[in-house]
Amino acid sequence: MKTKPAAASMFWLVLLLATSLSLKAHALTDDGPDDEMDEVTPEELSYIDIPVDERIFKVRWNEVPYNKRFFDYSPAEIEARWDEFMVGVRAPFPSPGYLEYMGSNHPEILENVENFRGYDDLSRRLVHVWRLFLRGDFQQAREDGLKLGIMGLYPAMFSQITYAIYLADRQTEKYMMLQDAANRIREHIYLIDRLEDDPIASELVAFTKLGHAYAIARIAEESPVPIIVVRGYIGLIKDNAEEIIELEPDHPLGHAFRAAVDANIMRRVGRATGRMTYGARSVVVDESFAKAFEMAPDIPILNYEYANAIMYMSRKRDLNQAIDYLTRATRYTPTWSMDALDTMYAFKRLQEAHLYDQHYRSFRAFERHRRRFSRVTDHNLTNVLSPPLNRDMMEHPQNYALPEVK
Question: Do residues 242 and 2 make contact, with C-beta atoms less than 8 angstroms apart?
């Protein structure tokens, strides 16, 4: 959404406010004032939604760095182990009975289903999309899922978000994929809002809100503070996080996401500004993660997200505790694609924690250099296919720049 010329004066007023907030926020951090602001171009501040280049969906995506046969389950195995696989995200199983109920009461879910031949066939096709996702065929899962209406959109976008975070080479590519997922999910928010009063649909509603907010949150966590403010990311993410818990009080990743939102706010604007301006509190982070671990103690993403939260809130004071949680995340035996990639990323993040511990006194300086590396090189820092950051990368990012895309 481009800024209209008539609103130019308001745009620059907002930019000035965002810049002022950024400087104030940096000055209130535990590490003291920051003498180098995030670089932001006028173009980046001129749109709310990141422009998406459709070519990223037409090229062949990177393959997962493991043998997919390890996680290739039959439809019967997927149904039997569904609750195990979905313990964190709580997606509903697309059984014929569930689809028939949803289709009868909310016929919009059947819109854009190619060659609809009844609920048994639709269930079979949807389970196959989930099978592709579980084993790591993310591009095919996306392509097949987009042919199956709203119920197919979710595994398709879940696959796309997972690929964007863990396998996309470029930060720009990652952002576009996340924005595209958020856009596609947002198109159906009108329906999701109507489903909130249906208790049978509550899991689907919570899963939808989690997917939409999670995609935006992964853009926001590495974006400069002025962009976060101008695009209204914090309010959008916090509102969705609260709604997920209201809909599904026993949603593990819902609680973890709610906690991670507050931790990331403190990371970017400091504890004092985070508390006063956005209501972000460390006690909420600790309590929410405790609930998440109680509900789902054996998934790696909770461990590495809590480790991140500890670093964001306490810097080096509790760094050994954060390292312990990252180490724990690397030791899980994964049972499907997302767990496997979460575990691999935890190892990479563990190397970053050691880099911070050994070579940086200030967390703010470490974060600034980390973001500078990504901005100069266009490397996606959460890509598990690329090597962990080291000191030379941080000091000489220009030597590691990816070639320009033509």
Answer: no
Tokens of 190: 């009108």
How do residues 175-192 score in pLDDT, each as one tens digit?
Answer: 999 999 999 998 887 777
Q: Are 260 and 217 in contact (CB under 8 A)?
A: yes
Q: What is the pLDDT of residues 16-69, one digit of tens each?
A: 344 444 434 343 334 433 434 567 888 888 888 999 999 999 999 999 999 999
The SS3 of residue 35 is coil
* DSSP sequence for 248-308: -TT-HHHHHHHHHHHHHHHHHH-HHHHHHHH---HHHHHHHHHHHHHH-TT-HHHHHHHHH
Contact predicate 94/120, CB 8 Å:
no
CA dihedral for 152, 153, 154, 160, sign (positive or negative): positive
| Residues recorded for the chain | 406
Say whether pLDDT at 303 is over 90.
Answer: yes
Give the integer Cα–Cα distance in Å for 153 and 186.
Answer: 11
Residue 202's pLDDT is 83
pTM of the predicted structure, to 2 decimals: 0.89
Dihedral angle over CA of 183, 372, 344, 69, nearest 10: 50
SS (H, E, C) 53-108: CHHHHCCCCCCCCCCHHHHCCCHHHHHHCHHHHCCCCCCCCCCHHHHHHHHHHCHH
394 token code pair: 């941080």
Give the Cα-Cα-Cα angle 170, 173, 179 (nearest 5 degrees). 140
Which two structure tokens, joined as six digits, stand for 218?
Answer: 């992964």
Question: CB 330: neighbour CB atoms within 10 A?
Answer: 18
Task: Report how far apart, in Å, the C-alpha atoms of 389 and of each of 154, 249, 328, 353 are.
Answer: 33, 38, 20, 10
